[in-house]
Amino acid sequence: MEKKKVAEWLAQGSVAVPKLLLNHYKQLGLSEAELVLLLHMQSFFEQGITFPTPAELAERMTVPAAECMEMMRRLLRKGMVAIEEHTDERGIRSEKYTLEPLWEQLVHHLYAEAAKDERGSQQEEESLYTVFEQEFGRPLSPFECETLAMWIDQDGHEPAIIKAALREAVLSGKLNFRYIDRILFEWKKNGIRTIEQAHDYGKKFRKPKPLARPAKQATGEFKQTIPFFNWLDS
To answer: Is-contact 231 218, C-beta < 8 A?
Structure first.
């Protein structure tokens, strides 16, 4: 008897909830109560009930039928739900709810977010080229532009990390692409992924040696020497 009951429960099936909806319902302007109501509507649809009443929805929720009705009205105004009219072969008209507008809005939101990220990435790359040209004091050559693109596309370096490597080369007095490429290689090999990690990793090599003695010049004066780490020798 118990096994039969469990089998009956399992036979009721399940409701598939798109993870994208769970991750983005807030951005779509939906409240938690509205989201749950939409999921119950989807459950009714899968049972063949295409026009559930507020009372039927309220039976599955912790809010009264009047509040379910008000939420339905809001969802219709927001364009998350629509009502479709159908006429069968006998000329009998009927209505049903559809969640197609919800999925359309979700897809539109995702495309908009992707376009926004792409524009931000393009602007960051353009800024990277500008920073390099400012530091080098000249336009970059085609080969140098290709190297920058390779660092981003093939090696997977973030523009911010590339800028940090450029600053490291400037501090070391080695302003050339071969030196910067070596810095990026060493950082990637040592798991450097953030600006803070790159800063700390480079700073320890520029720290003056505690036992270093000043170099005496011919005039009898002493000149302090500050060692720097040569990434090409690593």
So the answer is: no
Round to whole Å and give the CA distance between 8 and 4.
6
pTM of the model: 0.52
Q: Kindly give the residue spans of alpha helices, DSSP state H, lying in 154-194.
A: 159-171, 177-189
Please count the residues of the chain: 234
Assigned token pair, 95: 């209505």
Residues sharing a CB contact under 8 Å with residue 126, sequence separation 6 or more, in sequence order = none
Whole-number pLDDT of residue 152: 86
**1 SS3 class:** coil
Find out whether 29 and 57 touch, Cβ atoms under 8 Å: no
Residue in this structure with the two tokens 């520029």, named with its chain if needed: 206
Q: Where are the beta strands (DSSP E) in 11-158?
A: 82-87, 93-98
CA 227, 231, 232, 234 dihedral sign is positive
Candidate ranges 49-53, 159-163, 191-195; pick with highest mean pLDDT: 49-53
* Residue pair 36/30 in contact by the 8 Å Cβ criterion: no
Residue 223: which H helix or E strand, with range? strand 222-223
For 50: left if phi > 0, alpha if psi spans -120 to 50, otherwise beta; the answer is alpha
Residue 231 is predicted with a pLDDT of 45
Distance CA 169, CA 179 (A): 7
Phi/psi region, residue 17 (left: phi>0; alpha: psi -120 to 50; beta: rest), is: beta
